[in-house]
């Protein structure tokens, strides 16, 4: 049995995570949720004074926006779409027959107008674009959403449906890169406050295919993505618990995000993997929250 399986098994045994029979799809106990809620309050204390506009979107998004985002160009392997039965009574009969004999009953399902949200910030850009120009002072948004990624794994830190808290900044290059640097500093400080050892490193997204390798290299060379890493299931391969992304003016151009002075907005987003942070805390401090160091409990629950 490898390390990953045993941490997952211990999480199941303790009841913190609830097995659904699917790798990466878990229920969570009240205790697990309480840790996430406490950590989100800690995020609020660090980010609250910035005056971000809070928005909460459901875990599904407008398929047309998803298509325009280009996600299928870069990450087709991770996407999840929502399909539904749209047939006649006759189609229904054959669907039930298929199920009865254990054949594929999903073939006739048709795509709906909804796809699963791949990252919390995806529904934001078209929403803000619809409002018209951003002020020259830019925009700052506070998001949280369940996200779907088709990456089943026995690693409890790699889930298929998980929550991402994000801050998204839009403005000039200097404005949004300052924002990103501020959150890298805050991220390190926050994790230190809850007793976690972190490193920050340059990173890249898993762009699909051979052409994707070039995109990934380019992203790295230009320092567009950083990750805050914490060892959870492996010391050699620490887990990304936060990411800090600078999109240059790519999203600004794509979505028509402009500042009052006519320039295209640059954007950056900072994401917290909420389940990963909770898992890092349980991994470091033990599965029994009552036994956690007093300083950590104080940082989380006051
Ligand atoms: P990884 O390199 O581990 O796949 P990522 O680069 O795909 O992470 P992002 O796309 O930057 O991650 O997503 C923002 C944050 O969401 C990550 O820093 C991480 O904390 C969290 N996250 C990403 N994928 C998962 C997942 N499959 N399960 C749980 N949390 C995740
Ligand atoms: Zn984002
Ligand atoms: Mg990933």
Low-confidence stretches: none
Q: Per the principal axes of the C-alpha atoms, what is the gross shape?
A: globular
**Could you state the order of secondary-structure elements as H and E?**
HEEHEEHHEHEHEEHEHEEHEHH
Rounded average pLDDT: 96
Strand tally is: 12
Q: How far apart, in Å, are the first and last alpha carbons? A: 39 Å
Protein name: Amino acid--[acyl-carrier-protein] ligase
Keywords: Ligase
InterPro entries: aa-tRNA-synth_II/BPL/LPL (IPR045864)
GO molecular function, one term: ligase activity
Which features does this protein show?
single chain, 302 residues, alpha+beta, seven-stranded mixed beta sheet, three-stranded antiparallel beta sheet, 11 helices, 12 strands, 40% helix, globular, binds adenosine-5'-triphosphate, binds zinc ion, binds magnesium ion
What report would you give on this structure?
The chain has 11 helices and 12 strands. By secondary structure, the protein is of the alpha+beta class. Strand 1 and strand 2 form a beta hairpin. It binds adenosine-5'-triphosphate, zinc ion and magnesium ion. The site of zinc ion has 6 residues, from strand 12. Adenosine-5'-triphosphate is lined by residues 119, 149, 151, 158-159, 162, 164, 205, 227, 240-243, 271, 273, 275-276.
């Amino acid at each position: 049995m490898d390390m990953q399986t045993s941490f997952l098994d211990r999480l199941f045994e303790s009841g913190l995570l609830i097995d659904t029979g699917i790798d990466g799809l878990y229920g969570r106990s009240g205790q697990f949720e309480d840790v996430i809620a406490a950590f989100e309050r800690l995020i609020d204390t660090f980010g609250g004074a910035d005056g971000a506009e809070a928005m909460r979107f459901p875990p599904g998004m407008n398929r047309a926006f998803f298509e325009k985002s280009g996600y299928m160009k870069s990450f087709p392997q991770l996407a999840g779409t929502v399909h539904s039965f749209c047939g006649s009574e006759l189609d229904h009969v054959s669907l039930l027959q298929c199920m009865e004999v254990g054949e594929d009953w999903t073939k006739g399902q048709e795509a709906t107008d909804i796809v699963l949200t791949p990252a919390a910030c995806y529904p934001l850009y078209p929403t803000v674009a619809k409002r018209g120009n951003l002020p020259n002072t830019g925009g700052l948004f506070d998001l949280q959403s369940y996200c779907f990624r088709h990456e089943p794994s026995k690693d409890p830190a790699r889930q298929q449906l998980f929550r991402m808290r994000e801050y998204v900044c839009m403005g000039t290059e200097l404005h949004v890169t300052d924002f990103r640097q501020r959150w890298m500093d805050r991220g390190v400080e926050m994790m230190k406050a809850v007793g976690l050892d972190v490193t920050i490193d340059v990173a890249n997204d898993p762009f699909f295919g051979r052409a994707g390798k070039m995109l990934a290299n380019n992203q790295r060379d230009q320092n567009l993505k950083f990750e805050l890493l914490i060892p959870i299931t492996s010391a050699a391969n620490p887990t990304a618990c936060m990411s800090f992304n600078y999109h240059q003016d790519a999203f600004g151009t794509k979505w028509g995000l402009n500042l009052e002075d006519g320039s295209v907005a640059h954007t950056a987003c900072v994401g917290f993997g909420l389940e990963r942070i909770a898992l890092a805390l349980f991994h470091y401090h033990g599965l029994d929250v009552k036994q956690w160091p007093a300083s950590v409990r104080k940082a989380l629950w006051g």
